[in-house]
Amino acid sequence: MADQKRPYRMKRRAELEEETRRRITESAVSLHEKVGPAQTSITAIADLAGVRRSTVYRHFPDEDTLFAACSSHWRALNPPPDLATWASIADPGERTEAALGELYAFYGRTRRMYESLLRDEALVPSVRRRLRDFHAYLQAAGDLLLAGRGLRGRAARQTRAAVGHALAFPTWHSLTQEQALGQDDAVALMCALVESASRR
Fold first, then answer.
1. Residues near 183 by Cβ (< 8 Å), separated by ≥ 6?
2. Pair 187, 100: CB distance under 8 Å
3. How far apart are the first and last CA of the chain?
């Protein structure tokens, strides 16, 4: 009988360990969003998760492993818009409008986290490393929005700058949070900027 119970106990122990790891991860994500990674301590994570500091370190022995788990967990819940969807739109102007509409809606849903991450990017090396994927995504989006415009020289440089500005989170934040523009108006304004740059 004891031998039959052992696999069950081992399975239950593994389930409890996974549940603890999930609570720690979710607690860290919550604190990163609320106060920022630079102000998030292991003690605060442990308190919110209802575990000891030693338990946090047992699951995540260093900052990078904790940030990797947090990043994977958060991205799974908040995937960015799919670039392939934008690539299927042939007209560059229509593609830009659709892309900015989806991206700005994404920024609206994830505002608090990106405010915290971008504010602390220069302060926390693990945040800087994790945001490389985000910056690479925006670079790829910029390349996609420039495709098919047939631009060269000064017009190409200006349009790339306008597209990069339009895609940036701080641009969205300034237009919608500080200048109180609605999303549609913010998209229209940035589309006009891109199209104006491409015609010069």
1. 101, 104, 105, 108, 176
2. yes
3. 82
Contact 23, 51 (CB under 8 A): yes
How far apart are alpha carbons 84 and 148 in whole angstroms? 15
Classify residue 113 by its DSSP letter: H
Q: What residues contact 1, with CB distance under 8 A and at least 6 apart?
A: none
76, two tokens: 């799974």
Largest CA distance in the chain: 82
Tell me: the pLDDT tens digits for 33-88? 999 999 999 999 999 999 999 999 999 999 999 999 999 999 999 999 999 999 99
Query: Which residue matches tokens 């994977």?
Result: 72
pLDDT digits (tens, 9 = 90+) for 182-194: 999 999 999 999 9
Give residue 5's pLDDT: 64
Cα separation, 49 vs 198, whole angstroms: 51
Residues whose CB is less than 8 angstroms from the CB of residue 179 and which lie 6 or more positions away in sequence, other chains included: none
Task: Kindly write down the DSSP assignment for every residue of 146-175, as one continuous string.
Answer: HTTS---HHHHHHHHHHHHHHH-HHHHHII
H-run or E-run covering 75: helix 63-77
